[in-house]
Amino acid sequence: MAGIGVATPAAAQCNKAAFHAFLDVGHTPQSAGAISARGVTEFDFNLRLGQRIERTLHQRGFEKTTLLVSRGEAKPSLVTRVAKANLAKADLFISIHHDSVPQAFIETWEYLGAEGRFSDRFKGHSIFVSAEHPRYAKSLAFGRALGLALKDRGLAYTPHYTEKFMGPRRRLLVDKEAGVYRFDRLAVLTLTTMPAVLFEAGSIINRDEELSMQSPERQTSIAEAVANAVERFCSPPRTRTPKRATK
Fold first, then answer.
1. Mean pLDDT on 18-39
2. Domain ranges in the chain?
């Protein structure tokens, strides 16, 4: 008799209700991070985008998604955020940030009668993982999924972290297609026990990109990309069962 293929068993599906994504809003009201070209704090950008991502994940069925907003000074808050994520035994840690540039690239301009600081030289997002993390391979897998999801929506990563002029802020690009960099000296990327990425969603010191990052359309597009990446990361890859001949 001719060989008959054996049906491939369905791949295990992601249990969205049980999957715990931990969204870390970078910085605090007291230690607010970078200042945008128009004087808005990075913390404000991080919070608004984090809330949009949280809503999107909840709408997709990831009901356990946690948005962590911290208070206090920078370093103590880092320890607290990592400890809370580890205690919760989350499945994924995403630290949400918005980028600036080294001081050497800063220029000044007048905005609403006050002096502002800007640099239009760079724009785009970036994703960081740590090779010193015990779950480095999984962290990189999510970072790649996120980078490709953003790319699918027409969003480009910034390549300037590879340049010599970045000095101590220069990073190794470990996934050129997805825009994932290696950054080993961050507490949120080395002390967390679950796969972890730090996501710089865009440059708020760039005047045009700052306006884009404030728009609901851009925030929604990023949130949808994050949700797509979480779904891909949560669902195991499909495997094929080889056909078996029968007599």
1. 95
2. 21-234
Cα separation values, 103 from 38, 169, 212, 213, 242, Å? 17, 12, 23, 21, 58
Contact 46, 33 (CB under 8 A): yes
Q: What is the pTM of this model?
A: 0.90
Cβ neighbours for 32, distance < 8 A, ≥ 6 positions apart: 41, 42, 43, 44
DSSP state of 242: P
Pairwise CA distance, residues 192 & 82, whole Å = 6
pLDDT over 90 (residue 35): yes
The C-alpha atoms of residue 109 and residue 123 are separated, in whole angstroms, by 18
Average pLDDT over residues 117-139: 97
CA distances from 241 to 3, 7, 117, 244 (A): 14, 8, 58, 9
pLDDT band at 237 (very low <50, low <70, confident <90, very high): low
How far from each other are the two terminal CA atoms of the chain, in whole angstroms? 6
Do 83 and 24 meet the contact criterion of CB atoms below 8 Å apart?
no
Measured between alpha carbons, how far is 153 from 167 in angstroms, rounded to an integer?
A: 31
| Sequence-ordered list of residues with C-beta below 8 angstroms from that of 163, at least 6 positions apart, any chain | 170
Report whether pLDDT(47) > 90.
Answer: yes
Alpha carbon 48 to its chain's center: 14
Domain 21-234 in CATH 2.60.40.10:
no
What is the CA angle 22-219-70, rounded to 5? 40
Query: Residues 50, 18, 227, CA angle at the centre, nearest 5°?
Result: 35
Strand partners, 93: 22, 196
